[in-house]
Amino acid sequence: MSAAYIVTGTTRGIGQALAEEIALRGHMLFCISRAPEMQTGGRRNYMCDLRDPGETSKVMSRLMNDVPHASCSDVVLVNNAGTLAPIGFLENHTPVQMSDPMQVNLMAPAVLISSFIRESDRWGASRRIINITSGAALHPYAGWSLYCAAKAALNMLTRCAALEQEIRPNGVSICAVAPGVVNTGMQALIREAKDTDFPARARFLKMRQEGRLAEPAKVAALILDLDAGGKFQPGGIYDLRRVEWKEGKPHIEAMVI
Ligand SMILES: NC(=O)c1ccc[n+]([C@@H]2O[C@H](COP(=O)([O-])OP(=O)(O)OC[C@H]3O[C@@H](n4cnc5c(N)ncnc54)[C@H](OP(=O)(O)O)[C@@H]3O)[C@@H](O)[C@H]2O)c1
Q1: pLDDT tens-digit map of 155-192
Q2: 147 tagged catalytic
Q3: Measuring from atom 24 of ligand 1, which residue has the nearest CA?
Q4: Which of 3, 79, 161, 203 has the most crowded CB, counting CB atoms within 10 A?
Q5: Mind listing the pLDDT tens digit for each residue in 201-248?
Q6: CATH number of the 2-251 domain
Q7: Quick check: 108 and 157 in contact, CB under 8 A?
Q8: What ligand 1 atom has the least distance to the C-alpha of 182?
Q9: Taking the model in full, what pTM does it have?
Q10: By alpha-carbon position, which residue is closest to atom 39 of ligand 1?
């Protein structure tokens, strides 16, 4: 029996690191990204722009149909894709600019969670969902209003969906994990922002200068280890900066459960 992982946003950053680590561990990998469709060995990519909920739903149905669930011990969906754009004060955004981060950070995970739960209902595998959230879900930043709002809503979506699954036999385990401050394109975007659009920019420049950014490969391995070790409880909201090591193994307490 093998494990199958479905990961969104695998073209770069944490998603790419997750994909590489999952492949390295010999698991099956189903990616959803804006890269062209491809299949090599145990890895497939399904092309999708997550701003479009209709397309997202169709792509996920096709993907779920391709998962060889009868031979899977575990099937895990990682809602990783995210966008911080547009950075800036609300009065400077167009309606379309405001819609994109809500679609990618909130609606796409909602659509994918819904489809995953429904379409894997009769599968015998252990079914789990990890939503990649952010510390910004709990901490407000001027200039990130839509990102903060979407991630806060993603946390609550996680908690409500987990409650719904609690009363189901063989329900899906759903949690959210904030990865900390990670050395990806998203951080580069933050450092490149204008101070007028993002007044806290200097704090992020300093963190980079002081070498305090986590590397995506380490973050990816940690998420997979914690999940495989059964450390994520249903409905739990986790922050990877709170990981403690005991006898070489990672442990984490939920911030909210
Ligand atoms: N880096 C951090 O410090 C940090 C901190 C807290 C939380 N996070 C969260 O961690 C997750 C990964 O972030 P990251 O730092 O790896 O970001 P990143 O380097 O900017 O990568 C974002 C990924 O999401 C994909 N994506 C964005 N919009 C999409 C769309 N419309 N359709 C399909 N894919 C789309 C991107 O694909 P394209 O290449 O096609 O654009 C890319 O693969 C996000 O949920 C983010 O909110 C990151």
Answers
A1: 999 999 999 999 999 999 999 999 999 999 999 999 99
A2: yes
A3: 81
A4: 79
A5: 999 999 999 999 999 999 999 999 999 999 999 999 999 999 999 999
A6: 3.40.50.720
A7: no
A8: 3
A9: 0.98
A10: 11
